[in-house]
Amino acid sequence: MLEIIPFEKQYANAFYKLNIEWLESYFYVEPLDKEVLSNPEIYIINKGGFIFFVRLDNKIVGTVALMPTTDRSILELTKMAISPTLRGQNMGQKLMQHCIDFAKEQNLKSLILYTNSKLKNAIHIYSKYGFVNVPVEENSPYTRGDIKMILDL
Question: Is it the case that residue 38 has pLDDT exceeding 80?
């Protein structure tokens, strides 16, 4: 049975492993990545963010985070990763819809995300859910993020 559950400390290691695997598959792991992923409570939860997991048959197989921005009415959708053996089964889309529904329940103004132009499938899915391209700010927090998208809620 597939379910989406909120952050629990016992799943912090799964958050780290899923994201590191994804980064190593598509890009590279920067020191800041390791720091944030090793300490999700400090960098995400305690700052007003949220982490969700996909649990399938009592095993964590996917994750996503909603990180706070300088504008409290906007969260950044980030750190989305699905177990490599389960990609292509719409779990990422279920996580995306969960985040959108959650953001609406929280009366947020919008969600933003950063991505890379080489991730064509991801960009297609973001667009399908209503995200549109906006200019990436000069002081972007991500060296590999050459695309910024926003979804107005």
Answer: yes
